[in-house]
Design goal:
The protein is an alpha+beta fold. Helix content is about 30%, strand content about 30%. It contains five helices and seven strands, in the order βαααβββαβαββ. It starts with a strand and ends in a 12-residue tail after the last strand. The relative contact order is 0.17.
């Protein structure tokens, strides 16, 4: 399956993908209360990624099978509902690019689609001058990112209100390193 750049026309289908992915693939890692609160407060489409042309979709016959991207902006995670007015750009020479918003449809999980998306992100970020990625992983995403060569920097949690906390893991990787690390430099 081939990744393509997402467009604004994809937004409704992407929101459906995110909801399905989070509800089904987070079960066993997060409670129902954490999942539902995170869908309101954290997980959603980041339209800046689409506007920047750094968000990819892999299509299935019935809609998006997976989506994910990278960013040259400061935001580390979260959809539009988490962002402020500005999202400054990063300095490729001194700051890591971001891996952002990877979601896989449950029917397409564990078929290598996230790795395909990561390879696209790696190529694009390297071409833009970045050499390192940073991300904020969910607990279900942490094993994938570890397999891609990311190392945990910090275990943290964010408050979702009403006493609900969402555990997350901040991770970093040199682009192209690791056993499954995507693109290697020559």
């Amino acid at each position: 399956m081939i990744a393509r750049i997402a467009t604004t026309a994809d937004i409704p289908a992407l929101q459906e993908l995110i909801t399905l992915s989070v509800r089904e693939l987070s079960a066993g890692f997060y409670t129902t209360a954490q999942i539902e609160a995170a869908l309101i407060a954290v997980f959603g489409v980041d339209t800046q990624l689409i506007a920047d042309g750094t968000y990819f979709v892999i299509d299935a016959p019935t809609g998006p099978a997976a989506a994910g991207g990278w960013s040259f902006r400061r935001t580390l995670y979260g959809g539009d509902q988490m962002k402020g007015v500005t999202d400054p750009t990063l300095d490729a020479a001194t700051e890591p690019a971001r891996i952002r918003a990877f979601f896989v449809h449950p029917e397409w999980a564990r078929r290598g689609l996230a790795r395909t998306l990561y390879a696209e992100c790696s190529r694009a970020a390297l071409a833009a001058g970045f050499r390192t990625f940073e991300l904020m992983a969910t607990l279900p995403g942490e094993p994938l990112y570890a397999a891609l060569g990311f190392s945990a920097l910090e275990r943290t949690s964010i408050s979702l209100g009403k006493g609900v906390e969402l555990p997350l893991v901040r991770m970093r990787c040199r682009i192209g390193e690791g056993s499954e690390g995507g693109v290697t430099r020559s």
